[in-house]
Design a protein that fits this description.
Number of helices: 9
Number of strands: 0
Mean pLDDT: 93
Strand content: under 5%
Distance between the termini: 48 Å
CATH topology of the largest domain: Ferritin
Low-confidence stretches: none
Structural class: mainly alpha
Largest sheet: none
Helix content: 55-70%
Radius of gyration: 22 Å
Order of helices and strands: HHHHHHHHH
CATH class of the largest domain: Mainly Alpha
């Protein structure tokens, strides 16, 4: 590989590094708090490894930005976490949370890697991807050992290959429904699991939020995630398939003392929503059945509206750090007059 000289970061490289800094600085706050209230040693080791990765990632991105004379983001600091707050979640939820964050990391790092062009950035995201793969697989094995991992349902083995012969394969309304495809089942189970976790996380947040508007917003999110969980589960139930998940709100304690700043909790929820919109879109693109596509489209619109409401709250409170953006050429031109 040839040496690169004076190669500036491209817009996607800056954006992906900036976003990674935000996510990892938030993760450091969360995992440090989790580690102050944990009983299981196997889950503790997974969390400690996850914390180590996030700290190393923040350090590396800081170095890259400083070398480029690019402002290092504020992200989240020790001021956004109260390590003395009582336990809010169980060890089980910690592990499920890390599993989900591992999936999110695999998706975001692989996309960031595909968009990177400068050698050091390519190496950084390659390392992140490899480390996240290790974390995700480790957490999955621990979840299996603890009986926490809920497997997706099975489908029968066909006796021979076959071809679609009827347009009803695409339909999905009453009286015309074909059984779910394996790819549709996978997406429904994944999205059911995400919403079960999201409902539990946001339930805890709604108990401890300080600002009244934030608390009301989080309570609305708790209801939305619960409704989405029911929709995905009902589609699986129609074909007598297991849901592949369970309700996780029982893994939230009754604490009302906040371990996190309202700013951090709002950022966390908007990040989960953004990821959810992307996952719903991918699920819709791989499902030929019309009724499922319509459901995903409607759910995307609902959570996009909810995300916009959250963004307004963050802006009103001065919590939204401005992401990297292009120059405003019209504004620059106007300043000349």
């Amino acid at each position: 590989m040839g040496t690169e000289y004076n190669v500036e970061l491209t817009s996607p490289e800056i954006a992906d590094l900036w976003t990674a800094y935000q996510a990892d600085s938030m993760a450091i706050c969360g995992i440090k708090y989790f580690l102050t209230h944990i009983d299981n040693d196997d889950i503790r080791e997974v969390l400690e490894y996850a914390l180590k990765l996030s700290e190393e990632h923040v350090q590396k991105v800081t170095e890259i930005f400083k070398e480029e004379n690019y402002p290092v983001p504020q992200g989240f600091t020790e001021h956004d976490v109260n390590l003395n707050a009582p336990r809010l979640y169980t060890d089980k939820l910690y592990l499920i949370y890390i599993l989900n964050m591992g999936k999110y990391g695999l998706e975001t790092y692989s996309l960031a890697l595909s968009l990177s062009e400068r050698s050091d950035v390519i190496q950084y995201f390659t390392t992140c991807l490899n480390e996240t793969e290790k974390l995700h697989n480790w957490a999955k094995e621990v979840a299996k050992e603890k009986g926490i991992l809920t497997r997706a349902p099975h489908i029968p083995k066909p006796e021979q290959i076959d071809f679609v012969k009827d347009h009803s394969f695409l339909a999905g309304y009453i009286g015309e429904q074909r059984p779910l495809l394996g790819v549709e089942i996978g997406s429904l189970v994944y999205n059911a699991k995400r919403n079960a976790l999201g409902q539990a996380i946001i339930t805890g947040f709604s108990q401890v939020a300080q600002d009244k508007k934030v608390r009301k917003y989080l309570e609305k999110g708790r209801e939305i995630s619960g409704k989405h969980l029911e929709i995905f589960s009902s589609l699986l139930n129609q074909d007598y398939l297991s849901q592949g998940t369970t309700n996780l709100t029982s893994e939230v304690t009754d604490s009302t003392v906040s371990p996190f700043s309202d700013k951090l909790m709002m950022f966390h929820i908007t990040t989960l929503i953004a990821s959810g919109i992307g996952q719903y879109g991918r699920a819709m693109s791989t499902s030929p059945r019309h009724d499922i596509g319509v459901k995903y489209s409607r759910l995307i619109a609902e959570i996009a509206k909810y995300s916009n409401e959250g963004a307004k709250i963050m802006i009103d409170n001065g919590w939204m750090e401005r992401p990297p953006e292009a120059a405003d050429r019209k504004d620059l031109a106007n300043k000349k007059h």
